[in-house]
Every structure is written in C-alpha cells, then in structure tokens.
C-alpha cells in the first residue's frame, strides 16, 4: 500500500478561521489570528518542510499555539495569584467592576477590604456597625403590669405577623432613669442650693437675682448631680429590666411612683434585629465569619487567560518556542507509530522517538526559564531588590564630598 496517497501532510500554507482551535479562548484576538498562520509556516519549516514531508495539518499547529498560550497564561497567573491573593480576599467574585477579564491586566494594591468585611460581622455583635438592619418597637406600659411579650410588641409596632421561625435579638432597651439634671434647680436662680442665707448675710439677698453675686466651682454642680443619681439607685427601685425568652420584665413596677410613672413609664422603646438576617452576608460559627461568593483562595480568584494581543514581544517569543516544542513532540508521536517504513530494497527509519525527547526537553527548559524569570518579578523579590538598590545608593551618596560654605 502506498502511504503517500491518503496520508495527511502539511500542504505548505493555512488560513485560520474562528473555531479552528479546540477551546477557542483566543480565536477572536486579531493578533492571534494573524500570527497563528505565520507560526504554522514557521513550525513546519523548522521540522524539515519542504525538504521533508510533515505529517501534520493546520489544526495541529493551531492546537500547539493555543496550548502554548494557555501554558504561558497559567505560569504568569500563578505568580500573580501568589502576589495578590492576600489583597483580594473577600472581593466579590461576581462584581461587575471586575469586567470580563477579572484581575488580568490590572494592578492590585494593598487594601483593608477583607478585614473590613470580616469586621462587619463582629460589628453586629459589638454594636459598632455591621450589615444587619436594626428595628425599633415600643411597649405600651400598663399600671401594675410588669411583664410584657416582646413578639407581641414587635408585631404591633411593625404591623406584621411574625412566623414561628422568626427569632428576635434585643440589642438595646431604652429604659433609663430620668437625667439628674431635670431635678436640679436652676443654679442661676439660686433656690435649692442652700446658699441663700450666705447671700443675705453678705447683703446680696435682696438683689434680683442675688445668685449673680455668688461664684461656685463647676465640681459643686457635678457633686449635686451625683448625689441625685446615688439617691435614686440606693433608696428607690431603680430603672431596669430582665429578658427571659419572649418575656421582658420592667422595673420598677409601672404605676407605683405616682406622677413619675405617667411621665417616664408610659412607653418603653427597644431596638432589635432579626437573627435570620445575619446569614445574608456572613454566617457566624464560633469565632469565624464565612463570606460566601467572594475570593477565598487560589481556586476562585478571578484571573483569566492573557490575551495574545496584549503580550509583549518577550512573551510572544516564549510562546512561539514552546509551541514549536509541542509541534516536535506531536510530530514525534505521529512518526513513532511506525519506527521504520519499508521501501524498495531497504527500510526508512523515522525519528519519532528523537522528536518526542527533544520536544519534552525543550518544554521543561522553557518552563524552568519562565518560572525563574517570573520569580524575580514577585513582589517579595522586587522589594528586596529595591531595598538593596536604596542601600547601595545611600553608600554611593555618602562618598560625595560635602560643600563648604564660607560666610
């Protein structure tokens, strides 16, 4: 059988069309479309065409070129992820501001975004912010009734019917004693201060207002306020409350202190939140805060494939060399199917094994070379190099003679 008739071999040229590569990641890149046919010509010539037949067709060259682009993007993105993961933790992976390319081609600086997002979860518990809305409701107190239902008060205040699964967490009860200042006689009138006799003895009592002639330090007012507060705390049933389940118990018992009950016990407001709303942005387990739908590790940080048209000549040179190594390996596999072919009076030995070995060796060498170069560009190494340059520059400047000024 004559294998030269139906054997697929490189015809000498190609014309790329969208969809010719297995994945099509770069098919719409105009620069890729132009260079992929040039690469096919270059690779075929590099392995012996037109002196020798090349047992490959256009899609084989296209596949190698696409695979080289994928490998280059993978190596570059690995270094980018190592550099920027700590600064992107907590970023919303579906955010519209990322665009179609994600972080690819973007400069990423330091940010407190991740810490801020976590702190919001703790802020809910610490009453210092957060993402959960607080609501207000009120208790309409009744004389001599001390215990009230929290759920009933919430339902009435918000005009809603609470489900059996709704859980209310009280954050603050606005049930405090009246300020001592409201029971402090006006110091500019002078009454109630026990100083009228002193003013009379000094001849100022008949003046209006006589207190204008009396000077006292500010701490005297503060001591009187403190005395009023201590009196309420020790001698009276202090303003307080207890919460057990759905019940809130109010102290002192409403209606037991005459006019005071009418003025200060008519309505008690409290602030609360619905516990189920905490799970919207952060699920709390012990001391940990889980943020769903955000960058959490190297597996979901949104780095996309590099676009061939945006890669500089140095990167394209690496891609071409790596793709050529893939072509050699691919051609070696094809020729390795038969180690020799019988011809009239002899046998033709194919170089399949040699091409496979050469292609694999070149691939390993290129990846090692690229990794070493990218490691030099890591943020840690660049800072180290920058520090060394600054130190060296300081030593050089220290040797510059100083000017002498004569006045």
What's the layout of helices and strands?
Layout (H helix, E strand, L loop, with lengths): L29 H17 L11 H31 L24 H14 L8 E6 L6 E3 H9 L9 E7 L21 H6 L16 H18 L4 E5 L2 E5 L7 H6 L2 E8 L8 E3 L2 E3 L22 H23 L4 E4 L2 E4 L2 H25 L2 H20 L9
Antiparallel strand pairs: 1-6, 2-5, 3-6, 4-5, 7-8, 9-10
User: Spans of 5+ residues with little confidence (pLDDT < 50)?
Assistant: 1-5, 259-263
The N- and C-terminal alpha carbons lie at a distance of 104 Å
Rg from alpha-carbon coordinates: 41 Å
**Strand elements, count:** 10
Pattern of helices and strands: HHHEEHEHHEEHEEEHEEHH
Sum this structure up briefly.
The protein is of the alpha+beta class and 407 residues long. It has helices spanning 30-46, 58-88, 113-126, 150-158, 196-201, 218-235, 259-264, 313-335, 352-376, 379-398; strands spanning 135-140, 147-149, 168-174, 240-244, 247-251, 267-274, 283-285, 288-290, 340-343, 346-349.
